[in-house]
Amino acid sequence: MEEINPMELLRSKLSRVRIPEPTNRIYKQECCISFDSPRSEGGLFVDMNTFLAFGKDHVGWNYEKTGNPVYLHIKQTKKLVSEDRPLKKPTLLAIGIDGGFDNNEPEYEETHNIVILPSYATLPFPSVELPEKVRLAVDAILMAEGAERKEQVAAWTADKKQISAYAMDLRQIGDVVVPPSGWKCAKCDKRDNLWLNLTDGMILCGRRNWDGTGGNDHAVEHYKETGYPLAVKLGTITSDLEAADVFSYPEDDSVIDPLLAQHLAYFGIDFSSLQKTEMTTAERELDQNTNFDWDRIQESGQDMEPIFGPGYTGLVNLGNSCYMAATMQVVFSTQSFCRRYYMNQSLKLAFETAPADPTVDLNMQLTKLAHGLLSGKYSLPASEKDGTATPRVKDAKQEGIPPRMFKAVIAASHPEFSTMRQQDALEFFLHFLDQVEHSNAVNPELDPSRSFKFGVEERILCSSGKVAYNKRLDYILSLNIPLHEATNKQELEAFNKIKAENMLEGKDVSSDEIVRPRVPLEACLANFAAPEEIPDFYSSALKAKTTAVKTAGLTSFPDYLVLHMRKFVMEAGWVPKKLDVYIDVPDIIDISHMHSKGLQPGEELLPEAAPEGEAESSHPVANEAIVSQLASMGFNQLHCQKAAINTSNAGVEEAMNWLLSHMDDPDIDAPISHGAKGAETSIDQSAVDTLVSFGFQEEVARMALKTSGGDIERATDWIFNNPNLCAASAMGMMNTSSNSTPTPVDAGLPDGGGRYRLFGIVSHIGTSTQCGHYVAHILKDGRWVIFNDDKVGASINPPKDMGYLYFFERINS
């Protein structure tokens, strides 16, 4: 057969070539099926019709699926650079831009070719012989900013400072004259990190950093006492006043004070004679991030051995994405997720069943992430990937894989996770499992999130002697930390005495002297199951408020039990505080005693509704104390009342949790209804038809709409959360009498014994879940391994007592 000329072949395929428009998303930095890039061995192939990118092992799959034959091949090869190239000192808190971190990144040379499938005929680019349409398309692709970079910019840059709203009318008082040097905090012995309050001239130390460095918070405490808004950091004032570090406490940010020279002169400061001796806030933040090393974060700088191979692949930090990295490393260490997205689903199968754009398909991106983490393909020493000499094992590093596309998909339904800000690992974990459950709704038997799900039963004993049982499903067991159960009370008392004496003398307590409470995990579990009084509980038996007693237990034991330690609590004035506490966690726990018993012989249930004619007096009433506390936090009064009523006035925390999870309910602003509970709800047939078009049975659709008040979105959620109820006859379910036995809410969930083995820890460093750093420790192949973003190594001293989330695997007898 005569071989076709590549140029003629290209001309015959021009109808399949598109010139990208400004609105088109162009992928040219990463394969949408794997983590191959232009730097990979085979380079990257960009489909010149869809502008999706594919690695060399996957471009053929795209041709089979779409028939698109023309591709732009991009290959990057490392340039040889002199070893003594000087490193540039960063001046901006940023990565990958001028003035940011250098990171000693190697430089690459990029080549381009036009490749035509299935024969892989190749034409060089640039070339004047190429058709104009092809030249224009390639130029547009190369000039466009990649969709990967648009969606997830790997940089974090401090915001441009704004002029303070308090600067122009700042009131200055007193007759303080500030000397040009020799400063000291007025409340302790600190001589660095000092701030001059621009209202009264007080010199006080700055905030304490998350790692224990910094000041003693005296400057910010002074603001809280006086309300004086602006302070300037001593040591940053020079003749260049714009470089001075001025902080606004009410605006909670570094700001510009246009009248700084005038404000300084009030205290006798001649700024022209001062020399810079202190870092600004941005520079200190920059310095802390420069030194944000492996040994600073965990395990006290132990020299840990890097680990490579299947299951030991790091995740590149995309900019405050450690909460996601730590969580996903633990998730993909479970058999359920490993089987679903790696062992039982190939990349090709996921791609063939994905929509036209696989970058927006959660199933595809989870499969891509699973294969990236578990295959070992990308878990190689960086030098080995480059083809250069392999360094000593202790010095070897891996590049890790960047989960950009996965983050974009999982964040699509949660705007906070699409930002570059730090997030709560617990909140992300729950959102992730919710999305996985939805994506597996058609085949719930394949849903790996079910391995985390369990039932919780609350028993409420009324003073009438009658009981009520409430059931719900959950993915995590959230535990309060009873500090009064600490096992080292004598050491704590001695430490607090020394600490109080030092504070009177203005001295700090060294980190070596600090004693933290040690609370056994067993005490936290016992606290969850312990009886709890509910004041002002409305009893439908007594038709009045009374005090009830609530106990809780689990109706099923999941394959994987996740314990959330409530280290973040509210202090007086609703100020969030992180408990500085150690939790003594054993390797094996037994929670068999926490299994709920259900309705017992001889127990009588509280009546569900009051007799007619007494309905008005039997309406549940919101506890005013709960409502007022929630309202003081800024919540709507009506919303607060609904939260209290829907949680049976169980407490502020329960009401707030209900409120936060129902803020988007379509009827949240509707008046509290006192209509008959059994009143028939009219069901819109169009809503039924919509749910039927989703693949649900009509009877199930009607039942879900009736339960959710006709709202389609809530009805869909109800179906997903009640798959076993939906399997029954809907009409039969709606007409079930109170004497019949309903389908258990936890029917079909995994269940087994109550003995569990600890296999994963997500620990947090920082003052709140919205800042700091997350790290995962996972028990793999009989040893503990630390996953710190793209760093993976053998753990020497896993922080079992410092966890935020603990992951346990059930031990099957």
UniProtKB/TrEMBL annotation:
Q: Where would I find the UBP-type domain in this sequence?
A: 158-271
Q: Repeat as a keyword?
A: yes
**One GO-annotated biological process of the protein:** cell communication
Annotated ranges, domain USP: 313-811
E.C. no? 3.4.19.12
Q: Which residues form the UBA domain?
A: 621-662, 682-722
Q: Which SUPFAM superfamilies match?
A: Cysteine proteinases (SSF54001), RING/U-box (SSF57850), UBA-like (SSF46934)
- The broad enzyme category this protein falls into is hydrolase
SMART domains annotated for this entry? UBA, ZnF_UBP
Q: Which parts pass through the membrane?
A: none
According to UniProt, the reaction catalysed is:
Thiol-dependent hydrolysis of ester, thioester, amide, peptide and isopeptide bonds formed by the C-terminal Gly of ubiquitin (a 76-residue protein attached to proteins as an intracellular targeting signal)
* Any one GO molecular function term: cysteine-type deubiquitinase activity
Ordered alphabetically, the record's keywords are: Hydrolase, Metal-binding, Protease, Repeat, Thiol protease, Ubl conjugation pathway, Zinc, Zinc-finger
Catalytic residues per the record? 322 (nucleophile), 773 (proton acceptor)
Give the family from UniProt.
Belongs to the peptidase C19 family.
- This protein is called Ubiquitin carboxyl-terminal hydrolase
The organism encoding this protein is Hibiscus trionum (Flower of an hour)
